Amino acid sequence: MPFIRTTTNRPVEKSTADKITAACGQAITLLRGKTEDWLMVEVTGDKNLYFKGSDAPCAIAEVQIYGKANPTELDNLTDAMTKILSASLDVPADRIYVRYEEVSHWGWNGSNF
Q: Which residues lie below 8 Å from residue 106, measured CB to CB, with a gap of 6+?
């Protein structure tokens, strides 16, 4: 049950959002037991987003997962997400954050896992 929210101050066309979503579907498999079948993705552009006091192109990916992931898996996903956002949005890698949240309770279809 992963959820990836990407936010940027760059404009995001639907075709770009679709490209990011597809790439996230591949990248999420870097976490053991996670697949695109359960992945939800949000892509939001044109936000008032600042980094290091500047509104130069920047982005953040917030990744929420049900359960735990090991540090090596997270390192690999951070690398993949940085490459995805950098290539898709033309944002320098050093202006991209990836944030993780491991969730112990997750609801779906009227009940909880």
A: 1, 66, 112, 113
